[in-house]
Amino acid sequence: MSKNLHIKTFGCQMNERDSEIIEQLLAQEGYVATMEPERADVILINTCSIREKAEQKVFSLLGALRTEKQKKPQMLLGVTGCVAQQEGMQISERMPHVDLIVGTQQIYRLPEMLDRLQQGVTSREIATDMEASFTIPPFQKLLTASSAIPVAAAQGCKRFVTIMQGCDNFCSYCVVPNTRGREISRPMTDILEEVEILAAQGVREITLLGQNVNSYGTTNPVAAQQVNFPQLLREVAAIKGVRRLRFTTSHPKDLTEELMRCFAEIDNLCPHFHLPVQSGSNAVLRRMNRKYTVETYLDKVERLRRYRPDIALATDIIVGFPGETDDDFQATMDLLNQVRFHGSFSFKYSDRPHTRSTEFDDKVPEEVKSIRLTTFQERQDTICFKRNCEYIGKEVEIMIEAKNATGIKGRTSSNHIVHCPDAPAPLLPGDLVMARIVHAGNHSLKGKIENQHE
Ligand code: 5AD
Ligand code: SF4
To answer: What strand order describes the sheet that includes 100-102?
Structure first.
């Protein structure tokens, strides 16, 4: 008899992809994914610890699930992801109602762990070993297993493909090197095989995923294959059926001229680039251990725009990093005004366990962080709106992502969401159509479909 699985995912695209992998692995064991936690035989909380707030959310949800577990003791409750990795002991001690704690490197073991719990062989399963991050086989095992499993049609026309795991950069504020381990690149043959399987199933948009995709192939045995990220991009782009190609996330220090050139030369590489800058002050960047300056960042932005004038740039910003002065923050605002990002994710700095910046003096008061965040976000909203207005009157290609009673939602290759209220009926998710932009808001565009080009 099939069992129902509910996964609640917090955090980044890496986590979204991990949740998909878990779903795929467990589908082989007869689990059926459900959106309704009350119907689930197994609930997994896939957690994120990148910022303090994300971690707090996890602990309050786990607390709230205590009563559910009391009402339904046979239901299994598990925690996966970065919080499980980092705070496994704390969860184990404070949360006796949690049956299963699985770190970031061990999710491929979930089927056997769930089996043991269900058979009553064990009453609790904990796997937070990080050794795996230093050795290739478990990593390959996980990814190869997941790529062999067909993707459910409902999962749509766009997919993530993991090309590397972990991070070796040790930015001073970041938990990722601790929670996801050292950087490991996946062999190119496995990546290409996975993309071919997806494209054959009708997936049209691929996003290559890693903490720092720009350094793909440089840090482990994959280097022996002599493949770098631009070469990988060209190979993936050439696979039949891949209509749109994206990647995330990039580190500015590893952005090479060769990669920039790809934006001019690869037709199906989308003109959209997420390039986290974090701060506009060199003093802050130094303390963040980012290994680039504002000047080199701006120079790369300029060169990127020369290669691809319509490229939409997005970034991440941390405000209130320890020691950030008013002048440092002003430098971030100056950078925002100069680059005029198409979008950004901005956060108040928070201390994370075992990171270097936790030890830094001169912590910025919470009220100051809040004011700086609002100032930044208000200015970014204005810029977004102005940028969006630049699309009015233009004809753009959109890929349909969703359809409902009020019309369709599509996305441009520059990653803008376009709502089309009066779209023709036969359109389906995955279809590529041309739309004329007729209206701009802060966060999306409104379009009119003019002709269907396929
Ligand atoms: N505090 C605030 N923001 C952080 N980020 C990473 N660590 C922290 C932290 N300790 C942000 C960075 C990163 C994004 C994913 O999260 O901007 O690019
Ligand atoms: Fe964290 Fe820096 Fe690695 Fe990004 S590059 S995951 S911010 S350590």
So the answer is: 31-33, 3-9, 42-47, 76-80, 100-102, 125-127
